[in-house]
């Protein structure tokens, strides 16, 4: 396969290495807004099984003879690139989100629908073995009926100040992963949210209209209550967990020897010697797995496991949370759902 990769920053470079080492990829063509960074990425992969070539720009990659495209650029370029790929008939993988707002998301999805191309979004937790085991346990009945779910995403340190104004905010940028994985694990939809946030750290979050710590109570369509929590300040390490409490049993995703937690109980477990430092380390295997699945999607071997419709649903939950935070009141998903949605594969 000849695969194009747009964006060679931190996650793009990771994807470049994964693709260049995959047995199905013969040629990898990369480009970046900074051409020098693309050349450096290609040089680092000179010994990879696939031939890796840096091209001058995005348009050069899109004009090449490709079998698939991977988008790992800055968020504000995603929607336009997805639309361009759809018009070129290219199966496309794109890091979340499609766009930071609903209209931009819908516009890109209509192009995908119009041209009938495959689209897979980068919600890597769906490919993590812990979340997959939790999904299986829930649907097998092992937990009984699940009444409460608790989800947390905690970054060890805040992003650069100049990232925050264009990030979309903590709900759209960070907790959107939790919103997606809650839908995937449970197979249920969110019907109502009640959210709030605070700023206890650097002032640049508040200056951008954002928060550095957030909480949201989600009500699912079967009555299950989900508490979602996120922060940019978790100095103990990178912490991503999900707890599912049922009538028969309780299961935790993300609880292992590297979970950055210390027990306050006498004789309880102490702080890990090697806590998870960041998302790329914590979800390394999941990131590799999702690109492998995408290459199967691009070859027509399976449908997309994380569609544009899925990405839209997670964004709508984030939109509802942001509105709830600003209003100080519960918000229903119906109140933020567009009247007309693109046709295509159903969400989930």
Explained architecture:
- Helices cover 35% and strands 21% of the residues.
- It has 348 residues and is an alpha/beta fold.
- It folds into 2 domains: 2-124 and 288-311, 3-Layer(aba) Sandwich (Rossmann fold), CATH 3.40.50; 126-281, Dihydrodipicolinate Reductase, domain 2.
- It has a 7-stranded mixed sheet.
What is the general shape? globular
Number of helices: 11
Query: Radius of gyration in whole Å, from Cα?
Result: 20 Å
Stretches where pLDDT is under 50 for at least 5 consecutive residues are: none
* Count of β-strands: 13
What is the CATH topology of the largest domain?
A: Dihydrodipicolinate Reductase, domain 2
Going by helix content, strand content and strand pairing, the class is alpha/beta
> Looking at this structure, what is the CATH superfamily of the largest domain?
Dihydrodipicolinate Reductase, domain 2
